[in-house]
Amino acid sequence: MKTxxxxxxxxxxxxxxxxxxxxxxxxxxxLSKQIVKxxxxxxxxxxxxxxxxxxxxxxxxxxxxPRPH
Length: 69
Hints:
- The chain is α+β, with helices and mostly antiparallel strands.
- It has a single domain (2-61), classed as Rossmann fold.
- Helices cover 19% and strands 33% of the residues.
- It is built from 2 helices and 5 strands; from the N terminus they run αβαββββ.
- It has helices spanning 2-10, 28-31, and strands at residues 13-16, 35-38, 41-46, 49-53, 58-61.
- The chain has a 3-stranded antiparallel β-sheet with strand order 2-3-4.
- It is elongated and about 45 Å long.
- The two termini are 23 Å apart.
- The mean pLDDT is 92.
């Protein structure tokens, strides 16, 4: 989680491999794009903490499941 938070702040690309049927609940704000604009900056609430959100951040997820939902 610490690495993910740093990537969100810095605007890095994150790849999560081998995602299964269930996903960590802490990723829900990212997946549903619950980003809030405060002034000219963006924030997202993850893991009981407001984090500065860099618009350059990208999240990619891969799975070996035949038909993931």
